[in-house]
Every structure is written in structure tokens, then in C-alpha cells.
Prior knowledge:
The complex is a heterotrimer. Chain A is α/β, with parallel strands linked by helices. Helices cover 30% and strands 23% of the residues of chain A.
Amino acid sequence: MTPLLEVDGLNVWFDLPGGGELHAVRGIDFELDAGERFGLVGESGCGKTTAILTMMGLLPPNASVAGEVRLGGENILARGEESVSPHRWNDIAMVFQGAMNAFNPVQTVGSQIEEPMRLHGIAEGKNARRQVEELFERVGIPSDRASRYPHEFSGGMRQRAAIAMALACEPKILLADEPTTALDVMVQAQILELLSSLATDFDLALILVTHDLPIVAHVCDRAAVMYAGVIAESGTIDDLFHAPRHPYTRLLFAATPDLHAGGDRVVSIPGAPPRLDQPIVGCPFEPRCDRAFEPCPTVTPALKRVGDRHVAACHLNDIVREATA
Amino acid sequence: MTTNGSGPLLEVENLVARYPVPRWIVGALQRRPKLYAHAVDGISFSLRRGEMLALVGESGCGKTSTAHAILRLIEAESGSIRFDGQEIAGLPPRALRPLRRRMQIVYQDPYESLDPRFRVAATIEEPLDVHDIGSRAERRTEMLGALELAGLTPPELYLERYPHELSGGQRQRVAIAASLVLHPDLLVADEPVSMLDVSVRAGILAILDSLRDNGLAILMITHDLSTAAHYADRIAVMYLGRIVEEGTAHDVVENPQHPYTKALLSVVPKRDPRERTTPQILRGETPNSIRIPSGCRFHPRCPIAIPECRNVDPELRRPAGATAPGHRAACIRV
Amino acid sequence: MSAATQGAAAEGVSAAATARPRAIRAAILSSPQALAGLAIVGAFVAVALLSPLLLDGNPRAKVGPIFEHPGSGHLLGTDGGGADMVKLLIAGTRVSLLVGFAAALVSAFIGGTVGLLAGFFGGKIDIALMRMTDYVLVIPDIPLMIVVAALFGRSLTNIILIIGVIYWTTTARLIRAQVKSVRERVYVKRAGALGAGNTRLITKHVLPQVAPLLIANTVLLVAYAIFAETFITFLGLGDPSIISWGRLIQNAFTDDAILNDAWWAIVPPGVCVTLVVLGSTMFGQSLEDALNPRLRSGHLSVRRFRMRPLGGQLDSE
């Protein structure tokens, strides 16, 4: 069975004003099944947001893209905007970072959610209004709130409305970019619960983009850890936490404080990610890695299978394999 | 430790801070009574030298207002703030100035808290300049020392840089250095790492940790219970302008008594997917501080509220389930 | 600073913030409107500065018959007094620009101060100053100028002061808004928490941030001031002993240039006024566009990315 979504060798460059270019996404691959909850984790500038914006075909004019994003086998990037636009919002929809603050203050929330329906010819007029009410109930907003204005919504409610807007055209895939970053823990829990239940109840595939590992651990089945535009490791959440095969994954977990792990020392990762406007030689994580050895500064590690649905790009795995072979 | 052993450095008692809510013209014409947002509504706590207290709560609970009232950045309505034995609530600005040297603040957003036109040297020198301390050479020594304390080594490398040439973590270290250069006794850290990347957070917190070990009193404001649990000595959980539970970090996290604390702890996502638990999610959001519920202010959202809770405003006291002294909660049901 | 900068930049997060002066220069150089405006104003300023060299003797001296046609020995002909129009225009340029710039500076000073104080201190001071600004703003400017000029006499200084005192209101509002936002910046609050006094906060942190905007606004005010001067003088309220563009137009009218079909006595000063007003408006507007955060807007249409073949590009890695 082909997966619902396959990302294959995706690269994104941005032309820089003074000449030169920034290679933001440097060849990433992953797959997504229907109803699956997938996390894309990484720190700022690792390319996670660029990657999902590319799946929506929402890139600025100074961007160029290579690679494939296959939706049900069809490469939606094949003819650029022309081939992406039929799928945008209809098959793949997105909750943008800060979407909750992007509502037009002088228009009712309901009418703003009707807009994508109208634009995509899903429903109009009374029909659209009825669908908005249904959507509101689905995301946990009382349906009579549709005729209210954004300032009458609390933060959590606006985020729910932003999710409703993404669901307006009944997509198969929902991309959520840092959906809880500006929210309080209690509201964050409500939103995460909503996203999980949407995936389960409506067979919606979810890609959750965040810098926050515990959130991914809480919501997702699988995740990819991104670093400097590449995927360092990808696998089930359980494997990533209990059997990481890339030092970055391990260190990132170690840098995250946990409520009850009182005794564990929380350790920061020294250094900073490499510049993306220059070629990277060898493993991008090598300068910050605590296990770097002889091939790391010169040879770029390939993403290799290290277990069932578990891949990692680290030379250490070759040694382990040789030793066990 | 530089403690003089004579009681806490900071003692806050019954602190109240409120903001007038702007009335629209109709309200003003109708002479409706002025409304106030009770950001801080009678809280008391103390902080010793060499201790880190975390004020934890959701946005709007009054944790930041509390800190600002202590630093006299906003005026408290009533209550007492004693700093090193001296009452500073109501102290005139002139008398306050020498005390400002001894209490410093590090803000949340390192991208905003440094003047973009100031080199690092100018940013760190500003406190010395404001308080007219030291000769040129002395200042330079102080500045280099502060940068080093903040983990920017070698410090000479950073003096001539502009903020935009630094990473987020480095900027926050510069902000910390600028607050350390005056050798304060009290440091308020307002969400010091929430804007930073996960991989550099621990480094910043480790600095605060070691400063605390050297006798600095730190008041950390955070919404992140995991960070508080990990670094603070004591935690005070705030809800709608009140402290609802207070105790050592261990007691509050491992043996929470107040239903709000319990709920808050239950929704913190865990690192380990095998520890996934069903969070006890409170519905709705924190009600606003303009119309505070009667009785216990938490009762409308409380899972264990009884009718009495509507009338009784609970005091902070030692709950029956507490195992350690100094563990207090404001709930009549525990 | 090369080594240190390189090192810091290598750590990744630096790209976004560019130094401001460089951004402003880039904004000017990339805008044809700004360049054209600058060129126009620059040309007039050059003429004004060089006027002592270009004029020998009294420009009002009679050099030929009255209303002599352009071309016949005098490039733009003569006016109703037989004086050379070119020389009169050059003399007028000097006065008009002087009034324009001086009045704009007066305006910028008053408006800047009011805006700074209102925005920085807020509260009652803000309310009082802004109420005052609103009153001045709603006073019809031309009638007021006429009244004041009539009351205080027709001297160049008075004209400058009158114009300056009337046109500061928009500056005050603009600067107030900007100061208010800078005041809320965390680094200003931080300096306040350190114990820094208001003077220090204003001079070290606030003023340097709003100064470029104030300068841009002053350039815009020059256009208003020159236009106002022309208008007042045309109405006969200017200093009679001084030649400005307004006076040239007024003279042409009183000498019945229109009845004599002497268009060259009226049109050139009018064109000069129009050009300078246009030039400084264009330049000032582009400066303000580049500097005023409220006028800057992002674009939302973000869909025209390019696909590139995978082969060639990846070789470069």
C-alpha cells in the first residue's frame, strides 16, 4: 500500500539579497499514513517550517525547490504552483504559526472560515454557514459563536477557530506549525487533546511541527528530528526516546527538563547550528557532537535504516553494525 | 555564601497591585464605578539569599506583576515589601535609587531587551554609568568579570559586538552580564529561557543555578513547571493574583495538595512517551482578574469544589497531606 | 571588527537584523521616487548656495524694456519692472528655500519636543499636549497666517515663525506614536529598572530611535513651508523688500502680466514652487516609507516559487 504522503529528496533554497543562497532544506525524506500523527522536531532555523510550507506550495518568490512531495502517488510539486494549488486546503491544510492572531478583527470569525469554502467551491451561503457551525462543534466551540468577532474569543478559542479554518475543506492532512507555543499549559493541553482526537476520529493525518519534544512525545506516534536542514533521525517516539541512534536526538532529550526526573542533569548542547548559506562538509552536527570520531568532519552520513521504521544519519551506526555483523 | 544570617533578603506581605481598567466613553458618562484588574491580590512570601523561588502560573495569574511591584516598576496598592530589612513600598524614587543597584531583572526576550544600537560593552557599562561607579579601568574589569560569569568566554571577544551579531542564547547571557555587573543581591528572572532554543536553555539555567549557589537570591517567573521543578528550591503556584500552593520544589511537584496544582502538573507533557498519562484538563481559561469569583477564586473550575467553596476565601495553611513543614496550600478541602 | 563579526555570524542566528543606516541608504538608492526628489531638491539647493556667484548686483535692476519676450537677450524675458526673470528666480530660490528649511526646522523642533514629551511621559502630560495639538490642528492655517502676519508685521522672521508654529502638529503626532512604541521596548524598560533617569532614557535610548523619522518628516515639512510662504507672500503679507517666488508671482499680478500676455513672468516662479514641493515631498515620503513602521507592509502573495532539477544543484555540495 502506498503511504498517503511521501516526501522524497526535498530541497529548498532561498536567494539571498546580496547574492548567494540559503539552503534551508537539504534533502529530506519521510512518509505519512492516513490517521498518523507525525512530529517534525527541531530548533529554530532547522528547516522544519520551510519543509511543511513547501508541501503547501507556500513559498516566497525567492525560493526554489527540488525533490518530490507525492500525495497518493502524484507528485504535487511537478508543475509548481499549478500542480500544488488543487491540493492546497482541499487535501493538505495548515494551521500557521500565530494563526490565532491572524484573524481579521473587523470580520466575524464564521465568515472568515467560510472564505476557504467559497474559494474552493465547497459550499456557499446558508450551506457554508451550516458547515461552519458543524466545524465549530467539531473543534469544541459553541456553534453560536460563529457570528462573533475575533476579539470576543479567548486565545485558546481563536486557536480552535484557526484549526476549524484548516478543516474547512475536509483535508486528509493537517499541518500544524507550533500550534501551542503562545498558549498556557492548560490551554495547550486542550489544543493537543483536540488535535489527537481529530486524527483518531476523522482519520486525519497530522504533522506537528514543534521545538518542544515533550509535546511530540505526548501527541505523536512517530517523529523526525531535523538538524540544519536534514533529518538526523526518524522513528517511533518510543525508539527516539529509549533507543536514540543519533547523538543529537539523545542530547536534545537530555537538554529538556522533565517534571519528575529530578535527579537527571539537564545539559545544554554547546555551540550553535552551522550556517546554511554555505556548503556543509561532513556531518552537520559534528562540531557539537560528544561522540564525533574520525569520519565525521569529512564524510556526510547518509540516512540509514537502523531498525523497524527507524532511520538515522550517524556514522556511529556503521560501527555498531560492523561489530554485530 | 555571603549571607549575614539575619533573616530573609526579601519579605513580601499582603502585596496588592491593581490596574484601572479603561472605561469606554459610555461607561464614563454613566458614572459606572471604576473597575480594577486585581493583578496581585494579597500575596506573601519570603526569599533568602542563595535561594531560588519560582513563581509559577498561567498568563494573567499575576506572577509578572508581583515581580514588577517588588522592583517598584509598578506601584503596589498596599502591602509591605521589605528588602534586606528595609521597607521599600512607598519609598520615594530618590531613596530607591541606591537599592535599585541591588535588585536586577533579566527579561524574557533577549531579542528585545538589548538596545540594537548598543554594542555589548555599552549595554554592560550602562548600569555602571547610571550609578556612576568606577573608573574606566575598574569598569572594564567589572565588565569582563560579568561577561565571564555569564559564560561568555573569552569576554574580550564579545565587548565590541552588536546584538544582531549574537545568537539568542548569547544575547540572554549579555543581558545576564549586564544585570550582574552591579553585584546585585536579588535577581528577578522573568521567563529567562522561554524564547530560547531547547539546546541552549540548560546553559542559561546553569548560570542562574551557580549564581544562586554563590549567594544570589533569585526570583524566577515561569510558566514552565518542568523548569521550575528542576532548578528552583521552592515553588509558589499562583492563580488569579493569589498564591494557592507553596513549598519546596520537591513537595509541590511530587506531593501536590491544591487541586489547581494537581491539574497543572497533570497537563505537563512528559519526555518519555511511556509515561503518557491522561491529563486532567480544566475546561475554560483562567477567568479575568476584573471579576474575581467569590469565595475560593478557583471554585468555578475546581473538580472537587463543594458549595462552601463559593463563600469561604481559603487561607494558605499547612494541608493535612503535607509531609514537610513550609508546605502550604489554600484550599478548604485538603 | 571583521574577525569577531565573522565568528558571530558563523553561529547562525544573525542574518535578520541589518544595521539601520545601511537599510535606509538602500531604501533610498532603490527608490526612483526618492532619487528624483533628492535630485530636484539638490538642484535648487545648489542654485541657492551658488546665488552670490550667479547674481552680480541687484537682481531688480532694470536691464531692458518691461515684459520683454524670453530669448531676446534675457533667457526668460523681463518682468513688469524690466528686471531679468532668471536673476529674479535665482534670488527667489534663495529666499524661498531659506524660509522653507528654517520654518521646517522650527516646526520639527516644536513638533519633536511635544511628541517626545507626550509619548515618553504619557498620562496627563500626554493628554494635555495632545489636546493642544488637536486645537492647533483644527485651526484653519491660511486665515491664521493672514491674521498673524497682519498683527506682527511683514518680516521674513515672522513668516518663518508663523509657518513653523502652525505646521508642527503632524510631526508631534507621528513622533508621539513612535516614542510610545519605543518606550514600551524591553530595553528601555530594562534601563529604567537599572535606575536610569528620564533624561538618560530619552537621550540614550529613545531619541536615537526616532531621530531618522523626525528628519524624514522635516523634509516633508519643507514642502509645506515653501508652499505656505508663496501663498502668504502672494497675498501681499510677505516682506516687501525681499524677493521670493511668491513675491514674483504677486508682482506679476499687480503689474498686469496677464493683460500683457507675459506668461513668462508668472509661470516660471510657479513651476519652481511646484518642483521644490514635489521634490521634497517625493524624497520625504520615501524616507518616511522606509522609516515609519506603520507604513511598511508585508506582502502575502507567496506562491511563485521555482522548481529546479535535482541533478546539477546538488553537485555543488
